[in-house]
Amino acid sequence: xxxxxxxxxxxxxxxxxxxxxxxxxxxxxxxxxxxxxxxxxxxxxxxxxxxxxxxxxxxxxxxxxxxxxxxxxxxxxxxxxxxxxxxxxxxxxxxxxxxxxxxxxxxxxxxxxxxxxxxxxxxxxxxxxxxxxxxx
Length: 136
Fold this sequence. Notes:
By secondary structure, the chain is α/β, with parallel strands linked by helices. The chain is built from 6 helices and 7 strands.
């Protein structure tokens, strides 16, 4: 919890960033922390699944193509979690895979949105806002 300028109690929205590319993780983290989000960035699907329940993100930005467990597999496992609160978190796929089949697969597995790399900072911020407000 933090306080705004008026002393009112506020809570930053938590965003989990999952991407094997360190530069992408750092870029997204810089963009979103600049917008006052609490960001946790991890390098693998395995790590994301390990910390997911403890971190309790309000939104997940998830790459598809990662070594080991893919973003599709992470998406499936999160959507299978029995806790309604945890498995209803908006998940935005953020990937270089721009084929309609990949987008369709992600949506069918439970992704709420899709961003194709490379992306603009403003587009990323807008997707984050859209997905966080649609889940309130």
